[in-house]
Amino acid sequence: MLKLVSIGVIAAAGLAAGAFAIAQPAVHSSAAIEASDLGAKPFNLAKPRIFLSEAARQDAARTGLLPPDTRSVLNLPTRLRYGSWVWDDSGVPQGTLTIYVDLRRQLISAFRGRHEIGTAVILYGTDTFGTPLGRFNVMAKMKDHRSSSYDAAMPYTLRLTNDGVSIHGSEVRGSRATHGCVGVPLDFARRLFSEAKVGTSVQIVKSVSPELSYISS
């Protein structure tokens, strides 16, 4: 089950799924993520983001929930489920795009500078074909790529490793996994592909704790 964690005075429904939505370590069932669907398009919010206090930034970095020194995360009104994604860069200054993937929470986040601008639920690898942890850089961009190993479409591919591990568009739904890639909803993949460049930094982690304290909005 994908859960939001209630932190401080901010209600769980108002937390950013990209930062604080928690999934079991190996989520591949249709019941894994519960929520009303945000739909396959950006979700517009009157107050689109939450700004983190210094203590929250330190906690988030220590537990792997967010990249170090993250300043703000998207403020979502409800939980994400398979196929849902959000992208809102309104008010965010120009900056370098980085990508952060948390396998434990089954989420990907796009950051511009120190601000989260997009998030989505992902598919990831099985125990047999695991998704590697670590820091990577986008090696190549392939809009209409098709896997020669599995004869499968991989639209909007951002390749991360020489053996083919990539972020790419997928039908993100329950009871599915990948052969090590990070599968994201197709429209999110298209948006991420347009923003990313060869050399864009990608970090894949497994966060260690859902607990955070001190959030200031």
Low-confidence stretches: 1-44, 211-217
Largest sheet: 6 strands, mixed
Determine the mean pLDDT: 74
Structural class: mainly beta
| Strand neighbour order, sheet with most strands | 5-8-7-6-14-9
Number of strands: 14
Number of helices: 3
Could you estimate the helical fraction of the residues in percent?
A: 10-25%
Strand content: 25-35%
Q: Radius of gyration, Cα only, in angstroms?
A: 16 Å
What string, H for helix and E for strand, traces the elements in order? EHEEHEEEEEEEEEEHE
Description:
This protein has helices at 17-20, 54-63, 186-195, and strands spanning 3-4, 21-22, 49-51, 72-74, 85-87, 97-102, 107-112, 115-121, 134-137, 140-147, 152-159, 166-170, 182-185, 201-205. The chain has 217 residues and is mostly beta strands. A hairpin with a 4-residue loop joins strand 6 and strand 7. Mean pLDDT is 74; it is low at 1-44 and 211-217.
TL;DR of this structure?
This protein has about 220 residues and is mostly beta strands. The chain contains three helices and 14 strands.
Main attributes of the structure:
217 residues; mainly beta; globular
Please render the helix and strand layout as text:
Blueprint: E1 3-4, H1 17-20, E2 21-22, E3 49-51, H2 54-63, E4 72-74, E5 85-87, E6 97-102, E7 107-112, E8 115-121, E9 134-137, E10 140-147, E11 152-159, E12 166-170, E13 182-185, H3 186-195, E14 201-205
Parallel strand pairs: 6-14, 12-13
Antiparallel strand pairs: 1-2, 3-4, 5-8, 6-7, 7-8, 9-14, 10-11, 11-12
